[in-house]
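I hope you will forgive my troubling you with a question about protein structure. The full record is reproduced below for your convenience:

——
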Amino acid sequence: MKPNELPDYLTSWDDHLAAKYGAPGTPSRQTYEEGLEAFKLGVLIQEARKQRHLTQEQLAQRAGTTKSYISRIENDASDIRVSTLLRIVRDGLNGQISLSLDLQ
């Protein structure tokens, strides 16, 4: 076996994703990747909320939204408007968002 080569019984993460969701750029892979980003956003919000020792209800009140909306974002990261995301982070968590684009 060569360095950086996996044994036959193991699969690289990239190969696993390609087998399960298709090659990068395919519609099924794009759907997976969008869902993953939404999931990561939900986890970030949940971790920031916990770091601030806030309940979902308290965060919702500070951000002018509902507990069920915060729960949906944290658990399945439902589609979130940028204005609402900014309000949750700015008003609810006393934080700020920095964005970047990765153009290929």
